[in-house]
């Protein structure tokens, strides 16, 4: 039985218990949200780790790793998986397209306790290229075989591009294409396949088979956004909306069948469209968990796209998005290094925290660190910071000797100058 089916039967599973202990939510609300498809539970099938995503739960972050066709280094990918987990990622996506894909996926699964996701189309097209020298020769059945194989290996969630169908392709043609064209690998390759074969996307046409496989393994379906915008000027266009509408329809079908389902979003989007983007997805999908890729709020931040995406991610989360895919400083420029993965995870964690301050009114750590700054309590400042080890090491590097404040202002430390005048007020008030 899937977590969703269990919740519908009134069974509170080990996975739900695991999530309940780590989130500020009641047992009834958690169970009700899973039953209604407003939250999902991802499970690392080799261990006991479960991650709850959706309504009433903290915003989660995903770190994507994986080889490219011209850079294949398994050791490096395994190291990235470990760095992402250590840095605080909630899930990993293994998105390799080069090398021995089965081996890479299985080795990544063996080094992480996080739920791992994939995009099965990547492997299906890769195998078609290896076998037929042409991805458009991919036999339809191959993608279903890959989905089942990856589920069997223990993949927890899959981005599947079922909403990309002939209708959404027609919208794309009628709107006179786009500034940045198509940027989803799975989406672009599937469109080429559909055009060359003059056929409907099998992941749409045979959606019942997709959900049948996922249900068997309780693998969470993440309805991919193959037409997501790759330019802020392309956001919210008719092609994106068409695919989103179809994904929301498919989400209904999958949930009615008992499959835990997430809907994916952008992409690139201007900052003033983020609220509408989240609200439209939530309304049309019956509040399905919303997974945003970044989103990036400008196109000019190459080298700093982890910052651009953290701004988009923080806003998206504050308006109700549930799951943020990190972006690294290498976005648009090259395959991320281990340092890029660490930087991307940190930026996304900050974004999720900022969003949760508004969405879930989670301000406890901010209050604690603020009071610690007022009181010049360095240990508490490290403890409540988003990266305690890093903040402490930076402090030690920048400050030599026994000083009360820090080298930023030296003797001009503002809290040190005035705290003796307000001790009584602090003791008497609520802000102690
Ligand atoms: S010296 Fe300046 S930066 Fe450092 S603790 Fe005091 S006010 Fe803050």
Structural class by helix and strand composition:
alpha/beta
CATH architecture of the largest domain: Alpha-Beta Barrel
What order do the SSEs take from the amino end to the carboxyl end, as H and E?
HHHEEEHEHEHHEHHHHEHEHEHEHHHHHH
3D shape: globular
How would a textbook summarize the main sheet? 8 strands, parallel, barrel
The parts where pLDDT drops under 50 for at least 5 residues are none
Question: Which value, in Å, is the CA radius of gyration?
Answer: 23 Å
Secondary structure: helix percent:
40-55%
* Ends apart, CA distance between termini: 49 Å
For this entry, what is the oligomeric state of its chains?
Answer: single chain
Bound small molecules, by name, code or SMILES, are: iron/sulfur cluster
CATH superfamily of the largest domain: Radical SAM ThiC family, central domain
Could you tell me the CATH topology label of the largest domain. TIM Barrel
Helix segment count? 20
CATH class of the largest domain: Alpha Beta
Count every beta strand, where a strand is a DSSP E run of 2 or more residues.
10
Mean pLDDT: 95
Entry keywords:
432 residues; binds iron/sulfur cluster; 20 helices; globular; eight-stranded parallel beta barrel; 2 domains
Overview of the structural elements:
The chain has helices spanning 3-8, 14-22, 27-35, 74-87, 101-111, 120-132, 140-153, 166-174, 185-197, 202-205, 207-217, 238-256, 274-285, 305-319, 338-359, 364-374, 378-383, 388-398, 414-418, 423-428; strands at residues 39-43, 50-54, 60-65, 91-94, 116-118, 157-160, 220-223, 261-264, 290-293, 323-325. With 432 residues, it is of the alpha/beta class. The protein folds into two domains: 3-359, TIM Barrel, CATH 3.20.20.540; 368-428, no CATH class. Helix 4 (74-87) runs parallel beside helix 15, helix 8 (166-174) packs antiparallel against helix 12 and helix 14 runs parallel beside helix 15. The N and C termini lie far apart (49 Å). The mean pLDDT is 95. Iron/sulfur cluster is lined by residues 405-406, 408-409, 413-415.
